[in-house]
Amino acid sequence: MNIETRKLTLEDYDDLKESMLQAYDTLGGQIWGKATISKLLKLFPEGQLCIAVDDKVVACSLSIIVDYDEYGDKHTYQMITGAYTFSTHDPNGDTLYGIEIFVSPEFRGLRLGRRLYEARKELCESLNLKSIIAGGRIPGYHEFADQLSPRQYIDKVKAKEIYDPTLTFQLSNDFHVRKVLKNYLPGDHESKEFATLIEWNNIYYQGIDASARSAKTIRIGLVQWQMRLFPDIEAFYEQVEFFVDAVSGYKSDFIMFPEFFNTPLLHPYNHLPEMEAMRKLAEHTAEIVERIQQYALAYNVNIISGSMPILENNKLYNATYLCHRSGKTDEYRKIHITPNEQKYYGMVGGDRLQVFDTDCGKVGILICYDVEFPELSRILADQGMQMLFVPFLTDTQNGYTRVRHCAQARAIENECYVAIAGCVGNLPKVNNMDIQFAQSAVFTPSDFAFPTNAVKAETTPNTEMMLVVDVDLHLLDELHHFGTVKILKDRRKDLYEVRLLK
Fold first, then answer.
1. Which residues form the N-acetyltransferase domain (predicted)?
2. How confident is the model over 408-429, as pLDDT tens digits?
3. Catalytically annotated residue among 60, 124, 216, 259
4. Is 60 tagged catalytic?
């Protein structure tokens, strides 16, 4: 007898089908179709293993890789397999998920199941995955269901007071029961549709190489912009490009400028009333945005272009632009206009709120005063926002304090990162823009994985500088599923809701 453990191939399907029909007799003879096996082999050939006895496949193990935090411990078999489409397979995930393992009844005395489990463990170690997780049947439970709860049955199997052909074998192969699952596999009458969520931990798991940045680690650059007069618009562009060049040199994914950082260009219109001067500045916005989009492409960095006035249908808005390094441009208009913006410039608020998809995740943008209204960021959080960018402009320290503490609250309550960037210094000879106060920062949620004060980093107050910060989106996933508190999950949606009206 020749026994070989190897990768499964599509040519093995006929043998596989015969073995499945024998093994699945108690489940109504349901078997994996050839097209399904073919799809698994294309998605993840290393994860599909088999044992051949004298060149005939008699045992099989099927697996996918998942980012387990996306599903958590309450998943079903249908959910974890993407309704059997395997769309859940993620080559960058952290867990080897066992979706099938069986041995033909004719060969169950040869310890072939143990060989498959050992092969799975070797695969898990070689791929540097954190663990193997699977839903395990408890086929002996139907004999005790009128006497014992599933938990009691499992405890007795652990204590070796009861023998279960599947669970006893799994426990002997160093798996532990993580949870009892209900309605895991419809049609499994022997298990009464209960299952054990079993896990084997890879003690050699190294996590993410400390010398490399995770695919979910995003680098943010903030510009704390010094207000200064420029002899012409080209000098302004030179200063903008200087910061883009410097921040992109650190391989940043995003760079953000502050609200109204281009208002030094108001100087030539200082003889006009503030409202007319701001409308004259709005004539430059399209050109400035086009130039910043060119910088985004040239320096390979996504740029949040501060904010600038735009005139449309004789209405003046305060708008910011997300200039993607792919060449795409998105716009957001400030929704809540401050009393001063209304009084001096006649500005009106925008009426569109959305999350923007980028190559580094889902981001939201609010401008200054907007962040003081928690409903906006909560709506963005419900749309999947991971990072919130807030360009701001405040003249006094108490105005800055409002923006800072509201932004920090938004990070905590929405389980996201919030970055704020403002202007500093004085700007003589420009009406209503004479003094500025700022301390730019990146805020985090408040839990053990984050800084104890929920501040990732911050600048020196009132000094022109840039801040470069790494944020880990994976920590947000862990917080959402396993945090000390789960703010987004624990909302009483039966009692209240926050939603857009248009």
1. 3-163
2. 999 999 999 999 999 999 998 8
3. 259
4. no
